[in-house]
Amino acid sequence: MEVGSETKKLQCQRIGCNAMFTDADNPQGSCQFHASVPFFHDGMKEWSCCKQRSHDFSLFLEIPGCKTGKHTTEKPVLAKPAPKHPLAAPTSSPDANAATKGSCSRCRQGFFCSDHGSQPKEQTRQTLNTPVQAEEEKIESLAPPIKKVVIDINQPQVCNNKGCGKTFKERDNHETACSYHPGPPVFHDRLKGWKCCDVHVNEFDEFMEIPPCTKGWHISSPNQAV
């Protein structure tokens, strides 16, 4: 044994102690320590060995150890809490499941059943959407077919655009052939005008003389041929 080894200052490695000691002065019970690891969760600090806890970390470190023994320079092997094994979900055989589904009124009607599982998503969606699809097909069958109208490009027609009302032929129609008001007329407190160009007058004759503010194609109904 080396000279002075018994009087050499050593630091205890037990959790919660860390005191200085010598081999000559290390009686049983001189070390007070925690035998298990600390546990931290949601701001709470707890010693898993003695269940002592605190929110403040400084106060947590001052919690005295719950075990006594001798000081040691060997780091203790701490036992970790045993992991909690999840419980296995009970399983049933396919034959038994089919039998119970056959006796379940919800399963027979095609509804979702938490006890016996649901139908495949495709089948369920088809079952739920079948009445809607049938109703849509019924509406489409009742709708009158769109009638195609052949217009003679040389036939005179009356333009329906507001502020135009001119007679035109389709062969002469183009993107700037018509001068009109796209907005609705406005009549308020004896004022008459167009919302599109924000022009208002008092007399109706003046209202009729307000020049159109937009150019475009002549538009008319085939039934209004001159």
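Above is the first protein from milestone M3; the second protein from the same milestone is given next.
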Amino acid sequence: MQAICDSSGRFLDIYVGYPGSVHDTRMKNSSFYTARRYPPTGYILLGDGGYPCLDTPICLITPFKEPVHGQVQQRFNYYQSRGRSIIERAFGMMKTRWRSTLFRALEVKPTFAPQVISSCAFLHNVCMDNGDTLAPDEAMWDRDDPQPPREALAHNETSGNDTRNRLAALVSGNVQA
């Protein structure tokens, strides 16, 4: 499952396109990527290290690869990770709330599993909209999963490295006029 959420952990966009585990760069098949619906002009998405750092066709900013070079990159990665932790908490809340569904062998056809997972995400939003928040089970966070190597950029994509460098300078107070 790939998702975009707001600052409260409410899912704004989800993509559950493949049963099983696939590389993060499968985002290229998701509706938010193909329709370029997110982010609005002037905003960025934060992604983990498994995604490419992009300016176009969507603005998706990833952390600097380890080992980082200097305090500016280290500080940027810290704040980027803190921002990205919101989606990890949202996944954790959803997994905690629907653990009896999501952590059993689903007794449905594999091709139907994405609809079950999408329904759990929808119901998560219904709960959030009605003030039924839930502390995620910390053991269910995916924040320390090792990331596979990034794939090369496609012909219609441009690197977000310059944007990431400007943001890194901004959070480090090293902005030059």
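Note on the second protein: The radius of gyration is 17 Å.
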